[in-house]
């Protein structure tokens, strides 16, 4: 056997060895293909592949592509999907703590505060405990900012919510809306435009001002509550626990770092979209409605009662609730 043959065999072995350590994940998100949010997630997937030197490749699928958006938790836990970027609140019926992890309506005022609860206030550890019940590792939160609410009729305060058919998520948000006399409706975000257009709903609790503009919601709902205050969701980036445990510690650390960068990127890029939407609101015929402080205070008072109700639904939910209350006091949002 000559030296050239030996070198070729060695090269082949190295190549096959590298391939043996590569892994391709299927990850479904809560965003439609073509949206800015989905593009940011696809950028994250590229960053992970680069950081892990090709050992981890993530194929990103839009909302509902592989399974319905309400079934990704089970799909990830069973390994049908290896990862998800979804809303924790979608699965509150299976673990009440997920409602307070994913959407504690009316609590925080900006995404940096809620990010702080996860990384400084114990939220990340609680989220990981909640997800572990489903054979899933919660890598980290992904926020996009305070949401605004497009409405087909003028809504200037709490009393105007009565009778309003509003798309919102199950959990804290839907109970809060119901307590204020609104009629909450659950549906995927991709259905919001059509539902507003056809009069199935009067308003939507879906995305930020810029996200709503990107979907063209101003074409079917000319009012929008801005600056927002209803809620600021925290989506997840979560991985099948068996898949996660097979990773090297080095790659686990790289993915965790990439998720923190993803959170920052999502907040930043969606903030830019908001600024663009503000600049074009008048020419688009969009009327921005800023609630007075006394109406915001009424809303927050009603919301605090719903937080407490959800905190009483399970032992873990109670710990999540108390953790939020401690952190809100620490940063001066509660007395």
Low-confidence runs of at least 5 consecutive residues: 1-20
The proportion of residues in beta strands is 5-15%
User: Mind telling me the C-alpha Rg?
Assistant: 22 Å
Q: Helix/strand-derived class?
A: alpha/beta
| Total E-strand runs | 11
The average pLDDT score comes to 92
Taken in chain order, the helices and strands follow as: HEHEHEHHHEEEHEHEHEEHHEHH
Number of helices: 13
Main sheet attributes: strand count, strand direction, barrel closure = 5 strands, mixed
Distance between the termini: 80 Å
Sheet with the most strands: spatial strand order: 2-1-3-10-4
Helix content: 40-55%
Shape descriptor reads: globular
Commentary on this structure:
The protein has 335 residues and is of the alpha/beta class. It is 47% helix and 14% strand. It has 13 helices and eleven strands. The strands form three sheets. Strands 2-1-3-10-4 form a five-stranded mixed beta sheet. It has a three-stranded mixed beta sheet with strand order 5-9-11, with no helix packed on it. The protein has a three-stranded parallel beta sheet with strand order 7-6-8, with helices on one face. α12 (293-311) runs antiparallel to α13. It is globular. The model is unreliable at 1-20 (pLDDT under 50).
Topology, please?
Blueprint: H1 3-20, E1 23-29, H2 36-51, E2 56-61, H3 72-77, E3 83-85, H4 97-102, H5 111-120, H6 123-132, E4 136-143, E5 149-151, E6 165-167, H7 172-179, E7 183-185, H8 192-198, E8 203-204, H9 209-214, E9 223-225, E10 234-240, H10 241-245, H11 249-280, E11 287-289, H12 293-311, H13 315-330
TL;DR?
With 335 residues, the chain is of the alpha/beta class. The chain has helices at residues 3-20, 36-51, 72-77, 97-102, 111-120, 123-132, 172-179, 192-198, 209-214, 241-245, 249-280, 293-311, 315-330, and strands at 23-29, 56-61, 83-85, 136-143, 149-151, 165-167, 183-185, 203-204, 223-225, 234-240, 287-289.
């Amino acid at each position: 056997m000559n030296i050239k043959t030996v070198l070729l065999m060695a090269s082949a072995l190295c190549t096959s060895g590298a391939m043996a350590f590569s892994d391709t994940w299927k990850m479904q998100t809560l965003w439609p293909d073509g949206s800015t949010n989905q593009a940011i997630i696809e950028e994250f997937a590229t960053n992970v592949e680069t950081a892990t030197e090709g050992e981890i490749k993530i194929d990103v699928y839009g909302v509902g592509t592989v399974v319905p958006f309400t079934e990704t938790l089970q799909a990830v836990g069973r390994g049908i999907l290896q990862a998800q970027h979804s809303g924790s609140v979608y699965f509150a019926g299976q673990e009440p703590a997920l409602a307070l992890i994913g959407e504690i309506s009316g609590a925080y005022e900006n995404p940096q505060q809620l990010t702080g609860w996860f990384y400084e206030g114990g939220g990340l550890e609680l989220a990981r405990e909640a997800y572990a019940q489903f054979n899933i590792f919660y890598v980290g939160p992904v926020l996009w900012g305070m949401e605004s609410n497009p409405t087909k009729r003028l809504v200037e305060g709490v009393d105007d919510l009565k009778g309003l058919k509003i798309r919102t998520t199950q959990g804290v948000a839907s109970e809060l809306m119901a307590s204020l006399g609104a009629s909450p409706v659950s549906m995927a975000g991709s259905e919001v435009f059509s539902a507003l257009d056809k009069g199935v709903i009067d308003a939507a609790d879906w995305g930020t001002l810029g996200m709503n503009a990107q979907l063209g919601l101003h074409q079917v709902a000319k009012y929008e509550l801005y600056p927002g205050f209803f809620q600021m969701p925290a989506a997840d980036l979560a991985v099948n626990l068996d898949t996660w445990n097979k990773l090297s510690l080095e790659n686990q650390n790289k993915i965790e770092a990439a998720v923190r960068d993803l959170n920052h990127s999502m907040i930043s890029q969606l903030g830019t979209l908001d600024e663009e939407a503000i600049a074009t609101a008048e020419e688009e015929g969009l009327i921005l409605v800023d609630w007075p402080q006394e109406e915001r205070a009424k809303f927050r008072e009603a919301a605090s009662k719903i937080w407490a109700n959800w905190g009483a639904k399970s032992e873990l939910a109670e710990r999540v609730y108390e953790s939020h209350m401690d952190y809100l006091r620490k940063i001066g949002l509660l007395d």
